[in-house]
Design a protein that fits this description.
36% strand, mainly beta, binds calcium ion, 376 residues, 9% helix
Length: 376
């Protein structure tokens, strides 16, 4: 290249440098978006957050408490009226959601590890009416109880999602020790179930007319789903923990088999193949899988405009293991890109939800757990 040409290109280079600098500045500014703002602290292993119409929050703590958090972050005394909870290991009081008509009926749904005989337990779903003064749960009714009960402290699943038709989905884990049952339709182990708000079985559930199958089952072959949300498409988006590697995102469709433990992209802890490989006819492939595992918990679509167009429609997933919040770009129903938020926090992310204000809220899983709001 001759000198004249180099000189001629210099202004262009300077222009490029300026563009790069401006872009870097814009990135630094953009970095402030999603910065954490602590709403409340001092929560013991909080598991789920829901939003009350007056701007307060409902939070579960895994040891077996539910509290109201005020707009200024004050924790209430534990609400009265909870049923007995088998707290220990991964079990305890887990998810809570408010009815879409809460402003009218004050109804909440929650799930927990329900104690049985001889140290056995399983995941149960209950409804209750939150008292007008927000101090107690009334008219508590168990809507569903996973069968069989197993003496295990692991893999309770337990995310609740209200579908557009008013039915309730719940994820159920394989109890760690019963993974082969995830393929069996005569058990609730390793399933997603769907029930009506009165606990009855919807007539259009996929296995209601199949002999030997439990009618609450919606989908099967799941390992342990600790994140689920209704997609903008009205379908049930969920993720599940793999073993060593192989955490997955799926859209759980009626009657479908998600493969565990016959197919998986993970392996046994310490190595060793599980099942038959990574794919099989009649079994669904995940939309995305993580190797190594991030240990996902919590899941939410951002539908608001509060964080600008780049984030709108993104799917957010917490990582327990690496302590970050995954921001996933969804294109054509697929996960097109993954970005990481809250990476410097080094806190296990247990839940993520979009509030009625359109902002994202996150719970950190710790002895001194926090409710955090992401800056728009
Ligand atoms: Ca699978």
């Amino acid at each position: 290249m001759n000198q004249a040409l180099i000189r001629a290109r210099r202004p262009q280079r300077a222009g490029r440098w300026l563009a790069t600098a401006l872009l870097a500045g814009a990135c630094a500014w953009a970095h402030a978006q999603g910065a954490p703002e602590v709403v409340a602290s001092g929560l013991e292993n909080p598991w789920a957050v829901a939003f009350l119409p007056e701007g307060r929050f409902l939070v579960t703590e895994k040891p077996g408490r539910m509290r109201v958090i005020s707009v200024t972050g004050q924790r209430s005394e534990p609400l009265q009226g909870l049923p007995a909870v088998a707290a220990g290991g991964q079990g305890g009081l887990l998810d809570v959601v408010v009815d879409l008509q809460f402003a009218r009926n004050r109804t909440v749904y929650f799930c927990y590890s329900e104690p049985g005989e001889g140290g056995a337990n399983s995941t149960a779903l209950a409804s209750a009416v939150l008292s007008a003064d927000r101090t107690r749960l009334e008219s508590v009714k168990v809507l569903f109880s996973q069968k069989p009960k197993v003496a295990s402290r692991a893999h309770f699943g337990c995310r609740i999602v209200e579908a557009r038709d008013g039915t309730l989905f719940m994820t159920l884990g394989d109890r760690y020790s019963r993974r082969d049952d995830a393929q069996k339709l005569d058990s609730h182990i390793g399933k997603v179930v769907r029930v009506a708000k009165d606990g009855s079985v919807p007539a259009d559930n996929p296995f209601v007319n199949r002999g030997g199958a439990l009618p609450e089952i919606w989908s099967y072959g799941h390992r342990n789903g600790q994140g689920a949300t209704l997609g903008p498409d009205g379908r049930l988006w969920m993720h599940e923990h793999g073993a060593q590697g192989g955490d997955e995102i799926n859209i759980a469709e009626a009657g479908r088999n998600y493969g565990w433990p016959v197919i998986t992209h993970g392996e046994n802890y310490g190595g060793g193949r599980i099942g038959e490989g990574t794919a099989k006819a009649g079994m669904e492939q995940p939309l995305k899988y993580w190797v190594p595992s991030i240990a996902p918990s919590g899941m939410a679509f951002l539908t608001s405009d509060r964080y600008g167009p780049a984030w709108k429609g993104n799917l957010f997933v917490g990582s327990l293991k690496f302590g970050y919040l995954a921001r996933l770009e969804i294109r054509d129903g697929r996960v097109a890109a993954e970005h990481k938020l809250l990476e410097d926090g080094r806190a296990r992310i247990r839940d993520v939800r979009q509030g009625p204000d359109g902002l994202l809220y996150v719970l950190t899983d710790a002895q001194n757990g926090q409710l955090i709001r992401l800056k728009p």
